[in-house]
From TrEMBL:
UniProt entry keywords in alphabetical sequence: ATP-binding, Nucleotide-binding
Coiled-coil intervals: none
Lineage: Bacteria, Bacillati, Bacillota, Bacilli, Lactobacillales
InterPro entries: AAA+_ATPase (IPR003593), ABC_transporter-like_ATP-bd (IPR003439), ABC_transporter-like_CS (IPR017871), FeS-cluster_ATPase_SufC (IPR010230), P-loop_NTPase (IPR027417)
NCBIfam families tied to this protein: sufC
Domain ABC transporter: 4-246
UniProt-recorded Gene Ontology molecular function terms: ATP binding; ATP hydrolysis activity
Protein name: Fe-S cluster assembly ATPase SufC
Pfam families per the UniProt record, alphabetical: ABC_tran (PF00005)
Family classification: Belongs to the ABC transporter superfamily. Ycf16 family.
């Protein structure tokens, strides 16, 4: 069992404080969801965990199995088992899907024990079929010319092939129609195991109807302000964030407040 822990994390962008003392702890075998209003720092948390240098960590720790990884480069974090499915996946002309995924898998294996071509192609074909993706997409350049739904399926394909310890899914449901949402959810649910954990960042309950989380966290103003079970997400969908903020006695301005 592996553990990912964020302790008293403070993060700023261009001098503006975004995260203001965030605490979070999760283990493999668990699915956690983070919900919150726009601008509260959800995507900042995902980028900070993965080590995006545009985000300045001014205080706190990020621990993977008890080891502080703040000084680790992005590729070191990925090799150690962290994975980020981004809200807006990048296009990389000249690098095919198949090449990218195989390189990512081999980066986590001993240098003298790369995955065999035969096994890799077999696993890739089976996984793409599971996600209702034509195998021809394997030879297309990474995300180039892909629709929004194709990009999100491709992120889940990478997730299932690479098999990280922890996957951070940043608004993986953004812009998906119901069919694509079901396929993406099927892939994440297939990954559920004692060796895998996921942190799902979303605005909407609809994704959590398909990927039922063990724990739901609510973020406001750069912190996690409350934690509960799946019913908490349903309540937020029905009532919004203002009622919860007022119940908790928080002096926070929300975008949904009337001017």
């Amino acid at each position: 069992m592996s553990t990912l822990e964020v302790k008293n994390l403070h993060v700023s962008i261009e001098g503006k404080a975004i995260l203001k003392g965030l605490d979070l702890k999760m283990q493999t075998g668990e699915i956690h969801a983070i919900m919150g209003p726009n601008g509260t720092g959800k995507s900042t948390l995902s980028e900070a965990i993965m080590g995006n240098p545009a985000y300045t960590i001014t205080e706190g720790e990020i621990l993977l199995d008890g080891e502080n990884i703040l000084d680790w480069a992005v590729d070191e974090r990925a090799r150690a088992g962290l994975f980020l499915a981004m809200q807006y996946p990048a296009e990389i002309p000249g690098v095919t899907n198949a090449e990218f995924i195989r390189s990512a898998i081999n980066a986590r294996l001993p240098k003298d024990e790369p995955i065999s071509i035969r096994k890799y192609l077999k696993d890739l074909e089976e996984t793409m079929a599971f996600l209702d993706m034509p195998f021809s997409m394997a030879e297309r350049y990474l995300n180039e010319g892909f629709s929004g739904g194709e990009k999100k399926r491709n992120e889940i394909l990478q997730l299932m092939m690479i098999k990280p310890k922890f996957a951070i899914l940043d608004e993986i449901d953004s812009g998906l129609d119901i069919d694509a949402l079901k396929v993406v959810s099927k892939g994440v649910n297939e990954m559920r195991s004692p060796d895998f954990g996921s942190l799902i960042i979303t605005h909407y309950q609809r994704l959590l109807n398909y990927i039922v989380p063990d724990v739901v966290h609510v973020m406001m103003d750069g912190r996690i302000v409350t934690t509960g079970g799946p019913d908490l997400a349903k309540r937020l969908e029905a009532e919004g964030y203002a009622g919860l903020r007022d119940e908790l006695g928080l002096d926070i301005k929300l975008a949904e407040d009337k001017a």
